[in-house]
Amino acid sequence: MDIKANLDAVKKTFVNPSCLLVAVSKTKPLPDLMAAYEAGIRDFGENKVQEIMAKQPEMPSDVRWHMIGHLQSNKVKYIAPFVYLIHGVDSFKLLKEINKQGKKINRIIPVLLQIHIAEEESKFGFDRAELEEMFASDEFKQLTHVQIKGLMGMATFTEDQSQIRKEFHGLKQLFDELKQKALPDFVQLEELSMGMSGDYRIAQEEGSTMVRIGSAIFGSRG
Ligand SMILES: *Cc1c(COP(=O)(O)O)cnc(C)c1O
Fold this sequence. Notes:
Layout: H1 3-12, E1 20-24, H2 30-38, E2 43-46, H3 49-55, E3 64-67, H4 76-79, E4 85-89, H5 92-104, E5 109-115, H6 128-136, H7 138-141, E6 146-153, H8 161-179, E7 187-193, H9 200-205, E8 210-213, H10 215-218
Parallel strand pairs: 1-2, 1-8, 2-3, 3-4, 4-5, 5-6, 6-7
The chain binds pyridoxal-5'-phosphate (PLP).
Pyridoxal-5'-phosphate binds at residues 24, 26, 47, 68-69, 154, 196-198, 212-216.
C-alpha cells in the first residue's frame, strides 16, 4: 500500500482544493498513520474512543484528532481533553454531555451536528424537527463549553449518484438556511463535513468543506 501515492491521487481529484482532507485511519496501524503524517497529513479521523485514545499519545503532538463515528455519552470524558473536532453529535443529550465534560476541564469543545440525510434508518443524526426543537430550548441557549462549527452528514450507501447528490444538496441547503438564523454566539456555522472515499467529489461539488477519506488512502479495512 503506497499511502503517499494514494494521497496524491486523492488530492489530484479534489474538485475543491481548499476542502480539508481528514484521513480516516480507523483500524489501521501506527506506521500507516505515520506514512500519511510524513506526506503532510495532520488531520486524522477515528471512530472508536479506545482506538483514538491508544493512538493519540503515540503520534506527534500537532496531529488534530477528529472523532467521526457515533459517540456514546459515557465515553465523552476520555476524549474531551484532546479531541480537535467531534463530527457525529447526533442528539441533544450527547451535546449536553460534551458541554458538561468541557466545563469540568475548562475547555470549549468544537463539534459538528450530524444530520440524518440518508434513506437508511440506521444512520444517526438529527432531523430538522429535532434540530429546531433543540435550538428553541432554554437549555440549549445556556450551553457554555461547546462550539458548534457546522454540520456533518453521510449519504445513503448506494451506486445511485443522483441520490447521493440530492442528499448532499439537501444538507447544504439546510446549512445555508441555518446560517441565516439568529442563533447563540457559540454556533458558528463554517464547516460542512460530507464526503467519503466513494462520494467526495460529489460532496465537494455540493459545497463540502471537509471530507473524511479512509479506504482511498489506507486501503480497504478487510
Ligand atoms: C469509516 C468512515 C469514513 C471513511 O470511509 P471510507 O469509505 O473508508 O472513506 C468516513 N466517515 C465516517 C463517519 C466513517 O465511519
